[in-house]
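Human
Can I borrow your eye for a moment on a structure tokenisation matter? Give me a protein, with the fold worked out from its sequence. Write it directly below this note and I will take it from there.

Assistant
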Amino acid sequence: MVKIGKIELGDFPLLLAPMEDVSDPPFRAVCKVGGADLMYTEFISSEGLIRDAAKSKQKLDIFEYERPIGIQLFGSDIETMRISAEIATQVNPDLIDINYGCPVKQVACKGAGAALLQDIPKMVKMTEAVVKATHLPVTVKTRLGWDENTKNIEEVAERLQDVGIQALTIHGRTRVQMYKGEADWTLIGKVKSNPRIHIPIFGNGDIDSPQKALEYKNRYGVDGIMIGRAAIGYPWIFREIKHYYQTGELLPPPTLEERIDICQKHLRFSVKWKGERLGILEMRRHYANYFKGFENFKQFRMKLVEASTEAEVMQILEEVYHYYAALV
């Protein structure tokens, strides 16, 4: 049984990665149904929380059915991170996660996210401050290092464990790699096999099939896997991996009816959550994956991307259903 603090996550937990403008409540809702064991909010700016910025505050919204759920924070200032951890604790998530992995310029170039991989003493002090600021378990998500010459994750794992984190997720790339090239899980495996490490270690990067998930679990010994991009528009990835892990058999892909149903639910919640304009805009990244592998889908995808009202999108999804149902 894998545990973070007192949170029991099963034998081989599957985590939904925190993704900016993706891991919002509508997306988390369909991933929870799809079988995610632990989910995180989109990463939240510690400075935004302290300033009471509306966008940052809205990201604190969590629902009972999402549990266990973690709030992920990022920032470059230790005191600001400490205060933001206190604020986040007040909304009663199950844990607080610190983002030391985000590679994007607007985060890393401000000294937050993966930038802390260039200043391990500051990362350790910041982590310790957050751990002391909350009674909740604190976890960390990070990368192998800043670049090829500074893959310091083994030292990072030991030092962060020493100041009290209760789980670590490692993305198998450096910051310089961004999301390019292949994720290297070798160092993730080394961290997991380090006799000094006793907290759960979760691997992240390039897991896009049940076969790969089980292969990497067996090869690198990780306690669980965090799924990011492979879940976008395909929340069934979690149940497929679980089924394969438990039975050695592949589940059939979701039916046309299931795809339409979940896509519609996702859309309705997205519009309800963010308003029609933004809700529809942010759904656009999901459509291609909801219907991945469907021949001639491009014509419908173009329509879906151009649609500007909920009613229009629903109408197009009806057309998609009738078109493909007739082909069966």
In short: The first helix runs from residue 25 to 34. The first strand starts at residue 3 and ends at 4. The two ends are 43 Å apart (CA to CA).
